[in-house]
C-alpha cells in the first residue's frame, strides 16, 4: 500500500478546495437568474434587479390567467409539444426496433443521413419548409372550403399545415425524430433477442410480442427519447413564431415574447410569472423521466 506524505495530502486538499469553490461559483452564477425569476414572480413590486420581495403575492400568476391568455397559451404549448413528443416516441420505437434488427447495408448511411436534419440549423430550413407546408395548406383549403364553407377555417386550425396545430406538430416531431431514432436504435441493440425468441416459441403473435415483451422492455429508452424530444420542442421559439400567426394558437414562448415587446413599461412581475409557468412542465417531465434516462444511458436492460 502506497504511503501518502503529508505534503501530498495537503496539495490534494487544496486542489479539492479550489475545485469545489469553482463549481460553487459556477452553480451560483447559473442559479441566480432562476432565483430572480422565482422571487420576482411573487413580488408585488417586481423590478429589474434582484431584491427580496417586500410584499409576497400571487397577483402576478392570477393576472397571467385572468387578464392575459395564459391558460390558452399553456394549453396550446402542452397540446402541440405533447402531441409531437407522442408521435416521436411511436415512430422512434418502431423505427429504432426495425433499424436495430435489420442487417441491411443501407442502415448506417441512412442513420447518418437523418442525423443531418438535427445538425442543420432550423433557420436555414425555414424558407423551403414554409413553402412546402404552404403548398399543402392551400391544397387542403381548396378541398375543405367547397365542403364545409365558413367552417373550413375552424377545421384548419386543427388540421392546417400553416397556422394550424397539425403543421407545427409535424415540424416539431420531424426535428426531434433523428435523435430519438438513434437513442432507440442504440437501446434495442442492447436488448437481448432471447426475450423475443422465448415469446415466439411460446406461440405469441406479433401484436402480443410488441405489447407484452417489447414495450415493457423499451420503456426506459422511450422515456429517455421522449424526454429529449419534449424538452427540445418545449424550448423551441423560432418554429412557432414562423408557423403560427392567429392569436388563439399562440404558445407560451410567443406569449412571453409579446409581453416583453409591449410598448408600455415592462411588467417584470407578469413576465417572471409567465417564465416560471413556462419552466415548470420541463422540470416536471425531467423529474418523471430521470430514472429512465439514467437507466438508458447506463446500459439499459441487462440480459
From TrEMBL:
GO terms for biological process: transmembrane transport. The keyword Metal-binding does not apply. PROSITE patterns: ABC_TM1. Keywords: Cell membrane, Membrane, Sugar transport, Transmembrane, Transmembrane helix, Transport. Residues 74-289 form the ABC transmembrane type-1 domain. One of its GO terms (cellular component) is plasma membrane. It is a multi-pass membrane protein. The keyword Ubl conjugation does not apply. It is found in: Cell membrane. InterPro entries: BP-dep_ABC_trans_perm, MetI-like, MetI-like_sf. It comes from the Bacteria. The chain crosses the membrane at residues 17-39, 73-98, 110-130, 165-184, 213-231, 268-289. PANTHER family: INNER MEMBRANE ABC TRANSPORTER PERMEASE PROTEIN YCJP, MALTOSE TRANSPORT SYSTEM PERMEASE-RELATED. Belongs to the binding-protein-dependent transport system permease family. This is Multiple sugar transport system permease protein.
